[in-house]
Amino acid sequence: MAARSADGKSWAEIQEICSKVESVFHEDALKDAARLRALVQKRKDIAHSLQSRQSAAQRQLAHLRANLSEWEEKDQMAKQRNEQLHKKLEELEAIKREMTVQLDRFRLNEQYPSLPIYLLQ
User: Fold this and answer.
1) For residue 11, what are the contacts with CB-CB under 8 A and spacing of at least 6?
2) Are 14 and 5 in contact (CB under 8 A)?
3) Which residues form a coiled coil (predicted)?
């Protein structure tokens, strides 16, 4: 007669239970390994995605910095042109005032011509 355990199971039944538990553990281990591989791959994918995004962001930042420098240069050139135009306008305004004075003198001379020199003697 087969030996019985304290709860009344035979050695064959205990071996069968152990075999089933071992099978469950083995299946779980395979699933765990697959899950672990999937997690490792997911981590690699995330790292790659992050690296790609960082590279794209760095390229975009470099592009924006280059644009900013270009815009600052253009702004400075526009300010210089504005100053030059302002100076030219001031020069033209001064010439206009001078010509207005000369025109007024000319009109006065036309209205009141000088006496001929021979009359003054």
Assistant:
1) 2, 3, 5
2) yes
3) 47-109
* pLDDT, tens digit, 9 for 90 and up, residues 35-60: 999 999 999 999 999 999 999 999 99
Q: Cα separation of 116 and 119, whole Å? A: 6
- Taking 60 as the threshold, does the pLDDT of residue 100 lie above it? yes
Question: What percentage of the chain exceeds 90 in pLDDT?
Answer: 64
Q: Which amino acid is at 67?
A: N
In Å, how far are 99, 104, 105, 114 from 111, measured between CA atoms? 18, 11, 10, 10
Amino acid identity of residue 50, one-letter, is L
Paired residues of 67 in beta bridges: none
